[in-house]
């Protein structure tokens, strides 16, 4: 079947398409926590099987992990990268487009290394139920970390940072972030202001920060903004240079964990009910209680000119 993906970067104001599901409130989401190897074809097969399984379980929205077609390592990103504008050179996008179209579902395609005019990006592609590329999100906050004796990683050595938030309208209004993007509450607050129902963060937290922070930041983004947060990680593989934490999770609008996984390969299915967002906001109207008048950060020079 011919792929239906387009190359236009549709981020904020995508027009509704005929496949948009109107006023959907309840549906199933799947988080495909995939095992990632250095064999790209095998990674694609695994993802394809997990998507099919999710569809059989009734999922309408499917989330894949950060860097699922490629090991999470600076040595691999360029080798595994695909040029999204060249259909023949992008087997991963073709597979995602066909899967979305065949099954009539929305796929938040995790993230992949993307080549564009000599630059590499860590990019999430979102396909609608018609198989078209609705948007792509390039990771905005690159992950640079150096904890001596524990972990040292510098995404900015290989990737260029994206510079746009990404919202798509399919099964509700969805905001996208990639892994380290979750640490920045400003991005989630912006999505909240723009009416997002769920923020999906494909991610690959590590063993040093994962235990303490992975769940904490997901619940914080959800509870601060009274919306759903979904994360999807690769499963743990201790043989590579970077060991991922795993634990793909869905959090509800009051900060409650609806479902979570361990670190092994698995497909997590859960039901989302968007009416819980309104319930939560009605019983605790944080937006009305906000005091924007006193939050302005005042530069010390304004106080002491
Ligand atoms: N891939 C990433 O962005 C990892 C982010 C992470 O582990 C963190 O602590 O932040």
UniProtKB/TrEMBL annotation:
Gene3D superfamilies, per the entry: Carbon-nitrogen hydrolase
CDD domains: nit (cd07572)
UniProt key word Magnesium: no
GO cellular component: mitochondrion
Any one GO molecular function term: omega-amidase activity
Any Pfam family: CN_hydrolase
Transmembrane regions listed in the UniProt entry: none
Keyword terms, alphabetized: Hydrolase
InterPro entries xrefs: C-N_Hydrolase, C-N_Hydrolase_sf, Nit1/2_C-N_Hydrolase
Domain CN hydrolase: start-end pairs: 27-274
Lineage: superkingdom: Eukaryota
Stated name of the protein: Omega-amidase, chloroplastic-like isoform X1
Organism encoding this protein: Prunus avium (Cherry)
Gene: LOC110744877
